[in-house]
Amino acid sequence: MRSVLLPLAALLMLGNAPDAPAPGVLDSDDIPPVIRAMLQAAMESGNESEVATVEKYARNASPENAREIAEITSKWRTARREAATEKLRTSDFLTLLKGRIEVGGFYSTGNSNNGGVTVNANLTREGYRWRHRLALLAEYQESNGVKSREHYLAAFEPNYKIDDRAYIYGAAQFESDRYLGYFERYSASVGAGYSAIKSSSVSLDLELGPAYRYTRFTDETLESNLAARGTARFGWTFAPGVRLTQDAAAYLQSANSTFTGRTALSARLFGPVSAQLSYDIAYESKPPEGQASTGTTSRASLVYSF
Length: 306
Description:
Structural class: alpha+beta
Largest sheet: 12 strands, antiparallel, barrel
Radius of gyration: 25 Å
Helix content: 10-25%
CATH architecture of the largest domain: Beta Barrel
Order of helices and strands: HHHHEEEEEEEEEEEE
CATH superfamily of the largest domain: monomeric porin ompg
Distance between the termini: 37 Å
CATH topology of the largest domain: Porin
Number of strands: 12
Strand content: over 45%
Shape: elongated
Number of domains: 2
């Protein structure tokens, strides 16, 4: 229906369109005024998908101007890319900083079955050659005055971009979760990353490299090993304001391999505030005696994005 209505609307409006060309980058007298106005409005919106849709129907409605219409939209996209690149090159550190702060509750199963409070912060700075990611997480719960859940995580990852998709990463992480069997765990890794999918609605980043890990377990045993580290970050905005994400990380080693995964669904409520449901799973192949190998956490949270 849309494919019929847009060209029809354009053709019906031609007779009543103004003689003057639409303002801005569209100065050609050959393109019908109504089509120029439609293209101008789409480009002023800054939404590339809207520009592509209007371009498609404009070329169908005015095939004799199809080449010129394509050239105009191509120049617009090139100018946008150049402006974005210049911003990445010249902006100061804080200008490009974006983040999410999550506050909510959770319900856990495994070594403990309780509800509690979680605070999670994620910061990202996307520069021209460097990308920096910082993640902070704290979870705490008490039942009848007795602590039953305490999980802390801090992770920092700088990326050096080789090109538009490939990059080299470094990663450093501290984690503590005595209810999953360890007081302290330090991890460091370097390796290669690749953005396998990179679009306005879908993204997929994959990373692989060697790692070193040091763990102090709750039974006071120490473990220090080399490992192979692999991660995957998937995001899909499948409706306006609604996004599904899946993050997974695995450390494979001879002594104790681990896997963590998180699935989250968020929906924008108003402005920068979203509601989010998430489900986490953590697996230890060889936990200390008396500890479960798998723990899960379900959360309902409010998320503020900036």
